[in-house]
Amino acid sequence: MLTVGLTGGIGAGKSEVSRLLVECGAVLIDADKIAREVVEPGTPGLAAVVDAFGEDVLAPDGSLDRPKLGSIVFADPEKLAVLNSIVHPLVGARSRELEAAASQDAVIVHDVPLLAENGLAPLYDVVVVVDAGPETQLDRLVRLRGMTEDDARARMAAQATREKRLETADIVIDNDVPLEALERRVREVWADLVRRAHQKMTLE
């Protein structure tokens, strides 16, 4: 089993790369998706978030009002740290459960947005960074996600620098390219990951 940490700045196109890797045969463990699951209504995670931030972060239906919470934590590093201290351990536990259920020869791709920020690179056999220039990121966030330019810039600024992220990389996937070129590059990377998985199994 080979564990891969897949990361990239917001708007770099990481979700597209993870989709292509799944098409190749990867087992995807999506930290963002799990982070949503662990704070669904009725979970201990949501109760802990409400304890920390108050009832105001709940939507009328009792679910977490993500935009509201986002506007609070992205403007305040200390509050973001509090939120992370609640959510990250829950995400880690669920990720380990999913990993344990995969087959021995699997290539497991962990989609981890804040890998560089939280110093998580040592947890994985290989770190893959999806990279795009800041102008590309900004354009995608405004054009595709409907963010205001100020909000997009604030989200980008809250993350690690591009240089810090690239320092953690074993493999870099450039996503300032047309989709066909990206698909080609992902297939190359997949072949490399499969080779590494076989090598690891031989050594174990």
From TrEMBL:
It catalyses: 3'-dephospho-CoA + ATP = ADP + CoA + H(+). Signal peptide: none annotated. It is an enzyme of class 2 (transferase). Pfam families: CoaE. Gene3D superfamilies: P-loop containing nucleotide triphosphate hydrolases. Keywords: ATP-binding, Coenzyme A biosynthesis, Cytoplasm, Kinase, Nucleotide-binding, Transferase. Its EC number is 2.7.1.24. It comes from the Bacteria. It is found in: Cytoplasm. One of its GO terms (cellular component) is cytoplasm. ATP binds at residues 11-16. GO terms for molecular function: ATP binding; dephospho-CoA kinase activity. GO terms for biological process: coenzyme A biosynthetic process. Catalyzes the phosphorylation of the 3'-hydroxyl group of dephosphocoenzyme A to form coenzyme A. PANTHER family: BIFUNCTIONAL COENZYME A SYNTHASE-RELATED (PTHR10695:SF46), DEPHOSPHO-COA KINASE-RELATED (PTHR10695). Belongs to the CoaE family. This is Dephospho-CoA kinase.
